[in-house]
Design goal:
The chain is α+β, with helices and mostly antiparallel strands and about 220 residues long. It folds into two domains: about 90 residues; about 120 residues, Alpha-Beta Plaits. A four-stranded antiparallel beta sheet has the order 1-2-4-3.
Length: about 220
């Protein structure tokens, strides 16, 4: 076999190596450049493009969101107004101290002789569902006991004539606070006759009245 035939049978010859080696090196460097720079840039570009599309979507939805916010805000304002109307309807605009002051004036107006006024207990609205008080209220619900309202249990001992008692109760019913009468005990006693001065004996009632008064906290 001649030398020329042997060279023809060789796949890699010095001449071919001189051409292939730079190509292989260039390809390898190109792969490194693509892996190190082009692919991360492409990924980052896609990410920025997606963020831009999301931004445009949110921008287009912004008018609708503003309209929804305005609608929700108006509904919330209306609900708050209704809530305060309910609170004022139940409790009026006064707390217990103000009511007791008015109670004394009403008693004096109707010739009521007040012996004592005892606040027996008070309960306010409790929002926490885990509290013992809220659990107790759930067993004995009070539809008038809402947020911003406090319920007072009062016991009043006083003396009055029957007509004055009716006037006293009638005046209490016209107060701005919601008042629920729970229990009333009436006993009678008789004033001393003063015949020398021509006074007629009049019956006084010895009264114990229990009532619930709803007032502002």
């Amino acid at each position: 076999m001649t030398e020329s035939n042997i060279k023809n049978k060789r796949f890699i010859t010095p001449e071919k190596s001189a051409i292939l080696l730079p190509v292989l090196i260039s390809s390898f460097i190109s792969l490194l450049v693509v892996s190190a720079f082009v692919i991360p840039k492409y990924i980052k570009s896609n990410k920025i493009n997606n963020e831009y599309k999301e931004f445009l979507r949110k921008k287009n939805e912004l008018p609708n969101l503003k309209a929804q916010y305005k609608l929700i805000n108006e509904k919330l304002k209306k609900l708050n107004e209704e809530k305060y109307k309910i609170i004022n309807l139940i409790s009026g605009t006064s707390n217990l101290e103000t009511f007791l002051s008015r109670l004394g004036a009403i008693a004096s107006k109707n010739d009521i002789i007040v012996s004592s006024i005892n606040p027996k207990s008070s309960i306010m609205y409790v929002e926490s569902q885990s509290s013992d008080l809220q659990n107790e209220l759930n067993l004995n619900p009070d539809s008038l006991l809402v947020e911003g309202v406090k319920k007072y249990d009062l016991k009043i001992n006083f003396k009055a004539k029957f007509e004055d008692l009716l006037s006293f109760v009638r005046d209490l019913e016209f107060q701005e606070n919601v008042i629920l009468f729970k229990d009333i005990n009436i006993a009678s006693e008789e004033e001393n006759n003063d015949k020398k001065k021509g006074k007629i004996a009049a019956k006084l009632l010895d009264i114990t009245l229990r009532m619930n008064v709803y007032g502002k906290i």
